[in-house]
Amino acid sequence: MLSNIATVLAGLIGAGSIFMGASAFWAPQNAVGFGIPDTPTEDRSFHAWLSVKGVRDIASGLFIFIVLIGGTPHLLGWFLLAAGLIPVGDAVIVLRSNGPKAAAYGIHGATAVVMLAIGALLLIA
């Protein structure tokens, strides 16, 4: 039962990652929520960075689904533990850019904690 709940939550993380990545292309103004201060959504250089982030997020979500479909809950747990480093890195980027601490901890930190908790649940279930 616990494994099933954790697997569904992992799928939601994957779907959320794909959605956030895709939104980088159709709604770049949403990048302000990432936590980078004074986000210049009309700047071509920023659009290039945002495209890289969008592709990374889409691929990360797809990787979760690949492991979810083709792997075991144990493998998915290890994958989520490793992938939990991505939002940790994002939080560090926001903090080093003098972005809002609320975004660094509230968005990226919370995402990391959730991913690590789901990964741990999958490993013990």
TrEMBL record:
Keywords: Membrane, Transmembrane, Transmembrane helix. This is DUF4267 domain-containing protein. The chain crosses the membrane at residues 6-27, 102-124. It holds the Pfam family DUF4267. It comes from Microtetraspora malaysiensis.
